[in-house]
Every structure is written in C-alpha cells, then in structure tokens.
C-alpha cells in the first residue's frame, strides 16, 4: 500500500490515488494511479519544472471527486522564498482532468520547461492486489501532433489512455512538455484531459454508459448537492455525529457505481481501492443499512443482482441456478478467465440476503411492483437454499468451492483463509457451514412467506416456507448451541462437530431472528462482555480464543458494519441499552477517523490504546462502513416500518444529547423523528 500521504479522489468505478504532490509513481504492488473498470490507465504522472520535482505546501481534497495541490519547485524555507508556485487542480468523473497553473513571483522574467512524464502499465487490479504483473499482450505509446496515446492490446482486448492539453504541447513516447516564458507576476494555465477507452474481447466498447459528462465538475457538484438535498436532515447536539452523518452521505455518493448494463442507475461499490465494483453481499448489506436515507439504491441493487442471478452449473465460477453473484469484474484477468469473476458466485450469504432486502425494501417503500417483478428470482433464490446449498443433506447452507485454483475457500463474510476454526485453533474440513448464514436463511423464508401471502397470491407456498423456517429454527437451536459456553458455535464441520469459538457472528443471529427468546439475554451479555466488546466495538473473535489477534483480519479486529448489524439485532430482541452501548463506541471511534469509518480497526482494549488503531490495509471509504452510522442512527431511534407507518422508539446514550431526523422517506411520505439521550451507559457497564 502506498504511504500515508496519499490523496484519493473517486467517482464510482473510476478513482485516482496519488502522492500529496499530485504525482503518481506506481509500483506493480501499489494501488496508486488512475483506475477505471478494474484497470490502471495511468501508472506514471510526474510533473517537473526545469527538471526539478515539486514539493507540497498543502493539498485540499475538496470533494470526493476533486483535489487541489499547492506546490513549489525544490524546498521552500524560512530564509529563501520560492519564486514560483504551482497549483494542480484535478477532477475525476468518467475521465481525468487536471488544470495546471504556474505563477511567477520573481521580480524578473523566467523561462521554464514544464514536463509531465506519463505512462501506463495497464495493470489489472487483481495483478496489483496479488503483486504479480505478468502482461501477456503488447503495451504501446504513440505520440501524435495533438495528443499522446498510451495503449495495451491482447487480441480483441484493448485499453487506451489518450492525453491532450488545451495549450499546445510537445508529445513524445514518455509524456508531454511545454516551453514557456513568464514575465514578473504573470501566470500560465493549461487544462489536461486524460480519457480512457476500453474494448472487450468481443470487440464491444465497455465504456458505453461511462462516457464523460459535459462540464464535468459542475455536473458532479450538482449531482452531489441533489443527493444531499434528497437525504433526511440530521440535527444533533452531538457535533461529531452530525459531521459523521454528512461524511457518510458524501462517501456513499462517491461509491455509487453504475454497472455497464444499467445506463446510469447506481448501486454501492464495495470499497476503495480493491473493491470498486459490484459485490452481492456488500451491496445488499449496505442497502439494508441505508434504506431509511437512500432507498433508491436498493431498487437498482435488487434489479441488477436479479438479472445476473445464476442459471446453470459452472464449476469455474461456482455458479448454481438461483445463486446470487459474489463479485463482478471487468479487467483483463476476468476477460481471459484467468480468474472467475465474470461474474463469480462464490458466496453463500448473498442469496438469502437478496430475499431479505426485497422484503425490507417493500416494507419501507411500498414498491409492490418490484416485488412482483422479482418473484421468479426470489423463488429461484429460495430453491437454491433448499436444493443446491445443502451439501450435507441436513437442512443447513454449506459451502465448498468447486474452483479449487482461484475460487474462495471461505464463502461467508469472514472470507479470509483462517477465519473459521475450532476452539483448539485447528481449521475444520470442507464443506463448512457458518451460523449467521443459517440465520439469514431463516429470515429469508419468513420474509418470503409474507411476500407470497400478500403479493404473489400463493398462501400455500407461504405456509410451506413458514413451516420450513420453524423447523430450521428448532434444529439450529439444538445443533449449534455450545452448552458449556452458552453461545452459538461459529460453524459446523461436515460431521456436525462445532467450531466452538465465541465470535461476533452471534450478533447477526439476533437481527435474523433465529435465536430462541430464552437464550437472547445470554447472547447480549456476551456481545457487550469484556471478551468481545473492546470499548470501541465488538471484536470479530473473542479475546482468549486460540486464534485471537487484535489486528487479525477476521480474528479479533472490529468491523464497523458488523457492529451496526449487531446493534440492530440487539434492538430486535429488546436490548436497547446494549445496542446504544455499541452504537456509542463505534460513533466515538468515527471521530478519530474524521467521520470516515475504515473497513476495520484493531480490537485492542480502549483503555490500552486511547484511540482506535486502523487495520493496516483497510479499505477507505468502504460501502458498509459508510453505511454504519446510518444504521446506528436508525437503531438508536428505533425506526421501523410497521403496518404501513413508521414506528419510532428511541434509546440514545445520555451523552448523545438531542437528535432530530427530518424528512425520513417511505410509503408514508416524509416524516420526522426526535429523541434525547437517556441511556446511562455507566450504569449498564456496572
């Protein structure tokens, strides 16, 4: 990963990561550069003045889609003032545009040689992530009179970067240059346009629907202003909460991704830099988090995931009929089937979660038309749960990759290789089942029963689904309960042996509703107990487990999204104070990240570190971390759709003060919610 002084701007699937000078000098393993549709279109973009590199005075990432860099040649000191200053203004939005301004502060005229060294390795994002840059095609550079064309071709697969400037420049194979003369106090400006083009193996232009918008910056600014205006307004006596809410809305706007087939409609991309694309699980969970604030994202997500639902058996892609995709990629390695993400279906939670989101979306919006439109896809998803996901034949959802070369080993949300273990630290054989996915299946069947009875005119199907869900709940509470620890096992192996470790997954069981009422209090006690709760949030794995590591990716870190669903689940079972405790910890952590919660941070005790320690390679912004404050606000206010109306039942920590959420959209029109903090967290801890 690039150093800490990187500047990131993005617009959906297109993003730029540079140094604080605006320069880009990428290595094969660093996600710096200009990226779009999973390809790096610029890996070198270095500006010099008279052969000298520039140094940063300051930079300003003004909006998510633009940045401004204030620079001088050489090092400015207290004793010798710089005689030149350079301003680079950069916007990304389908293309990449940079305006360069040079000001002469000297008392005499100067002659300057301005040069931008430009190049591209056209690395696939997977090649950068895996630190393997093995290009099998031809990279070329073609200077023309009015532009520089950088390109890569491999058969019919083609990517090009075309660079041009408003002030005539000299173009060569390594970049572009100007020779300029500046009188005292004179300034010089040029606008540089970097356009990206992509042709797939079929010869089709992949950038259809991603064309550059006219007056790019103004269009992006208007779009952001409209996005913010359409969202509910949050007024609060807690200043960090207000700024965190605004930061979340802006980051959510930045992460909106328009799949190539949707003609401008958007869904949440998972996260920068590695996951700026469509993910089934991530997009669905983010939509659930933000439903009260941005319901339109759910409609797009459901439609595109339904359109790409599995239809056949494909071992390379781990595809089955009815299965919802895990990940979709557009780069070279996917195009030539060097990895299976075109799309790849290797997740076991996206399919039941698809049904869950459809039902929750209808409860909020009353969009019956979409429920009827997606009936076939919903039934296919439920059939996948029963017919194809039960690899052992005992009624649970299991996973085992069929693509043993490039498929995912763990196909739950904790998808790192060592995330599922027994109490002794050993890893179980495959197939594996994890607890939270069984909860999702239960929830999906209960919700689908409502849809079948109310909208599909199939009460018999509804009855059957409810019977199946009841049987699953009874069986689950028998097979997964760890009696001596009084919690649910993280997983089962194919022989039915429990992966008997205490994990955050038990919180997901609460929001799915599969937990027996008489066991819920013990689960709540674990979730805010010292082994799982650090003071900042709930750890992915409890302190004291063999594989516990406070900076282990899924074995002890704190994931904000995970905590938001845990808090939501606690509210479902009536543990409002415990939910407020978790919300308070996560929102406290957010202020140390300027309101932008990272993908994960360390599970250290709050008293030990005094501030949350970011996980070294955490994505930021990341969609379901961006959605976390929104779901926590919903949870603290107790916002729930109920019989066509919005129910409000607030439980806020005392220190949160008063919160107002105005113009909450839904089938009820727009309504307001008000609350004042009254949960004493010190009393709860005692």
UniProtKB/TrEMBL annotation:
UniProt domain Mannosylglycerate hydrolase MGH1-like glycoside hydrolase: residue ranges: 336-594
One GO BP annotation of this record: carbohydrate metabolic process
InterPro entries with a match to the protein in the record: 6-hairpin_glycosidase_sf, 6hp_glycosidase-like_sf, GDE_N_bis, MGH1-like_GH
Pfam families recorded: GDE_N_bis, MGH1-like_GH
Putative glycogen debranching enzyme N-terminal domain span: 10-192
Name assigned to this protein: Glycogen debranching enzyme (Alpha-1,6-glucosidase)
Lineage, highest ranks first: Bacteria, Bacillati, Actinomycetota, Actinomycetes, Micromonosporales
